[in-house]
Write a structure and sequence with these properties.
Length: about 300
């Protein structure tokens, strides 16, 4: 019981913040324009600042975390073909949306929030490094999937490379690693200012995600949405934790790996499906359903892992 209480203390506040955002949007206190502007602020400014500060000031290094990063990368690469096999019975045009929804997690917000709540700044730094590696795999795979299965978009290596290079989260992580490796000294006043900006990131982002959810979509959820959500919330964590066990990760690294893997489907999967000719309705259902269930599955999984 005590173990489950610990797990719930990690996931519960995150879920409640999402729920508050959902309620505030429904009563009109969070407008669509505010959510759009706040989401853009988080993505372009505050989340990159948070990642830079936590990585730059962390005791751990990229080389020191190689077993964690290897487990995350290998596990992600294994889950993608498994999701592809599960999508085979679906309509041809729905497969890319299903596959992306089944493996692409919300690492940047919910995954990092869980890691920070469970393990503090060190867990957040580990989660940020993990996110840097896995996000590149996410972007590469998602663009290829929609290019293969969509009739309206063609794959472009140039566009993919541009998206990766211009991604502010990846840029912030790379700059932090370079600055740390070169031994640069950042003035204290800048670090303090960065802390002020970073401190608003996770609460604001969680409120925006909650405000963007539409649980009415759950009434129209198909078997495909349930299958993709189940794959994301149960099979993906098992596969990644399995690689962590093989690499003999220490307890905190294993916990961070699990929490990042157990995050629900990323909201960007809906945006990408709509932009690249996928089934955006299916994508929205997967996001809503996985977000609703993730606090339960992550709590149970963390309790078992602990």
């Amino acid at each position: 019981m005590e173990t489950f209480a610990f797990a719930l203390s990690v996931t519960g506040p995150i879920f409640l913040t999402l729920l508050i955002g959902y309620v505030l949007a429904r009563v009109g206190l969070l407008s669509d324009s505010f959510v759009d502007d706040a989401s853009r602020l988080v993505f372009l400014i505050t989340l990159p600042v948070l990642l830079f500060i936590k990585i730059f000031t962390a005791q751990s290094s990229l080389l020191g975390e190689w077993p964690l990063l290897l487990a995350a990368a290998l596990g992600t690469l294994v889950t993608i073909p498994l999701a592809w096999l599960l999508a085979r019975p679906l309509n041809y045009g729905d497969r890319s949306t299903f596959i992306q929804g089944a493996f692409r997690g919300n690492l940047g917000i919910i995954g990092l929030a869980w890691a920070a709540k469970a393990y503090g700044s060190s867990g957040l730094a580990q989660g940020a490094l993990l996110m840097a590696v896995v996000t590149i795999i996410y972007n590469l795979t998602s663009v290829v999937l929609f290019a293969v299965y969509s009739q309206s978009q063609r794959f472009s290596w140039r566009r993919l490379l541009r998206d990766i290079v211009q991604n502010p989260l990846i840029v912030a992580i790379v700059l932090a690693l370079l600055a740390k490796q070169l031994g640069l000294v950042v003035p204290g006043i800048l670090l303090q200012t960065g802390d002020y900006l970073a401190s608003i990131t996770l609460p604001l982002a969680l409120l925006c995600i909650g405000a963007s959810l539409d649980f009415s979509l759950l009434r129209r959820s198909s078997a495909a949405a349930f299958a993709a959500s189940g794959f994301k919330l149960m099979l993906v964590p098992v596969v990644l934790v399995g690689f962590g066990w093989l690499l003999n990760l220490p307890a905190q690294s294993m916990g961070v790996l699990f929490l990042m893997a157990a995050a629900p489907t990323a909201t960007v999967s809906f945006i990408m499906a709509r932009a690249m000719g996928g089934n955006s309705q299916l994508a929205a259902n997967i996001v809503a359903l996985s977000t609703l269930l993730s606090s339960v599955t992550a709590s149970i999984g963390l309790a078992l892992l602990k």
